[in-house]
Amino acid sequence: MTTDLPESVPPPTGSSESPSAPSRRTFIATSTAVGGAVVAGGVIAGTVLGGSEDAAAAGATPSSRVSLTVNGTRRTVTVDNRTSLLDLLREHFELTGSKKGCNAGACGACTVLVDGQRVNSCLTLAVRLEDAEVTTIEGLAKGDELHPLQQAFIDEDAFQCGYCTPGQILSGVACIQEGHTGSPEEIREWMSGNICRCGCYVKIVRAVEQTAARN
């Protein structure tokens, strides 16, 4: 006994459905295709319109106006609210002495003074510094006269590649001002946030110690 079914079965005699009428399967397939095209068209149109609105919203970057004093000069600028102090100094004010090392607050190469306190400028938002006083490595010297700690770094040969040196010096200045120079061990502890990849730590500590002694 065979179980094969015929490929097509003609409609029974007397049926109102003509051989040329679409089958139920054809009707469902056609309806699904048309409906899908309509939905897809609506989605695509919505995506285009919605995308335009989103793009317009994204283009409106939140920014703020901030005024601060940098190395004795009053500066006013409008910046993206996400701008770090480091990028403000380097990209807007062209003060490139402060270096971008890890950009995560772990190496200290970007150290500057804000109202006399040392900070990692890569982690400090510029818009939060309204009326603040910022000192960078460019602001330590008085004309051709170097800051005593800058001179001590030269005298003690306390650097090699020099990449970390601006941050080391600013951190050392703050360390002296804070009174954390009672011993080499204390200086190392309070300067531990500044990394020197060349390994000049002994000479750096010596430079800070001698500068503090002259004060």
Descriptive notes:
By secondary structure, the chain is of the alpha+beta class. Helix content is 40%, strand content 13%. It is built from 6 helices and 5 strands. A 5-stranded mixed sheet has the order 2-1-5-3-4, sandwiched between helices. Strand 1 and strand 2 form a beta hairpin. Helix 3 (148-155) crosses helix 6 and helix 4 (165-178) crosses helix 6 (201-214). The model is unreliable at 15-19 (pLDDT under 50).
Strand order of the biggest β-sheet: 2-1-5-3-4
For this structure, the quaternary state is single chain
Identify the overall geometry: elongated
Structural class: alpha+beta
H/E element sequence: HEEHEEEHHHH
Question: What kind of sheet is the major sheet?
Answer: 5 strands, mixed
In helices, the fraction of residues equals 40-55%
> How many DSSP H or I helices?
6
Total beta strand runs: 5
Distance between the termini: 113 Å
Strand proportion: 5-15%
Low-confidence stretches: 15-19
Q: What is the residue-mean pLDDT, rounded to a whole number?
A: 85
Radius of gyration: 35 Å
